[in-house]
Structure formats: structure tokens, C-alpha cells
Amino acid sequence: MPALWEKCSGYPVRAVYSSDLRRARETAEAVARKFRLEVEVRPQLREMHFGQWEGLSWNQIVRRFPRLAALWAARFPRQTIPGAEPLNRFRRRIAAGLRDIVETNPGKCAVVVTHAGVIRFTLGKALGLPARNVFRLAQDSCAVNVIDFFEDGVVVRCING
Predict the structure, then answer these.
(1) Is the dihedral of CA 102, 41, 121, 35 positive or negative?
(2) Cα 53 from Cα 71, distance rounded (Å)
(3) Which CATH number do you get for residue 139?
(4) Does 138 share its domain with 63?
(5) CA distance 65 to 53
(6) How does pLDDT run across 62-115, given as a tens digit for each residue?
(7) pLDDT, tens digit, for every residue of 108-151?
(8) Which end of the chain has fewer CB atoms < 10 Å from its terminal CB, N or C?
């Protein structure tokens, strides 16, 4: 499998942004080095905070919180997780962070290294998907998604490449 920087090498990358979480930052730094760029760290790109579920796999969540996990799966996105970042706040945070990146880089190609939830909700918004359907979008580690932002809308060119 090609490295992420190789997947990005066909694009005229002019900026690299990253979540402030270590895994994303380290990945972004590896990409930025290949393009001789610096990484701009943006906390708005971090994954949603999952409260009591933070750091757990779905199987662990189901074992520890079976009733709540079933409710969450059935009622998403309306069902909350105790102590978690509210979904609407998460969505506003990532939208503001991405809007700033797009406005800072008009007509330029920027690589954004972030997390599956951020990517799913960004793609979902671009594609007009209801929030309940964003988990239908697969996101492999180091996948490339390409979205062109225009004044009057967006075009999704690649998903999970």
C-alpha cells in the first residue's frame, strides 16, 4: 500500500493542516516533510470527545454499556453519550475549522490530516447526507478524500482512496 504522501503526490499541495492529537500530527508531519512544508495544527480538527466511551472500542462499549449502546445505535444522532461533546457542537467546531482553512487557501490544495468522525461528517455535509447515515462512509487509516470547495458549493472527487 502506498504511503499517504505518495497518494498526495499527484496534487499541487501548498499547505498541510492537522488535528492537535498526536497520531494525526505525526502523520501530517511525514506528509509535510515530503512537500517541504510546515504543519499548521488546528484543535478544531480533533475527533469528537466521547465522554464515558472515550478510548473504548465499539465491542468494549457494547459490553460495558449494553443498554446505552443499543439506544445510541437506534437513535443516532439524537441519543447522547454521558460526558460526551454534544454532536451539534462537534459539527459546528469542525465546520468552522474547515471554513477557515478553505478561506485561507483560495484556489490552493491543502492536505488536512484528521480523524474518521471529522471526515465522515465533512463528507456527509458535502454530499447532503443526514447525520444518521455518515457511518455508511468507510474511512480507512491514511485514506485520501478529495473535496473541491467553490464559492457556490463543493464537489467530492474521491472518497477513501
Answers:
(1) positive
(2) 14
(3) 3.40.50.1240
(4) no
(5) 9
(6) 999 999 999 999 999 999 999 999 999 999 999 999 999 999 999 999 999 999
(7) 999 999 999 999 999 999 999 999 999 999 999 999 999 999 99
(8) N
**Rounded Cα–Cα distance for residues 14 and 105 (Å):** 8
Domain-terminating residue out of 38, 60, 84? 84
**What pTM did the predictor assign?**
0.91
User: Across residues 24-48, what is the average pLDDT?
Assistant: 96
| 7/101 Cα distance (integer angstroms) | 21
Please give the average per-residue pLDDT across 9-34, as a whole number: 95
Q: Which residues form the domain of 28?
A: 4-48+85-158
Total number of domains constituting the chain: 2
pLDDT of residue 2: 67
Contact of 98 with 112, CB cutoff 8 Å: yes
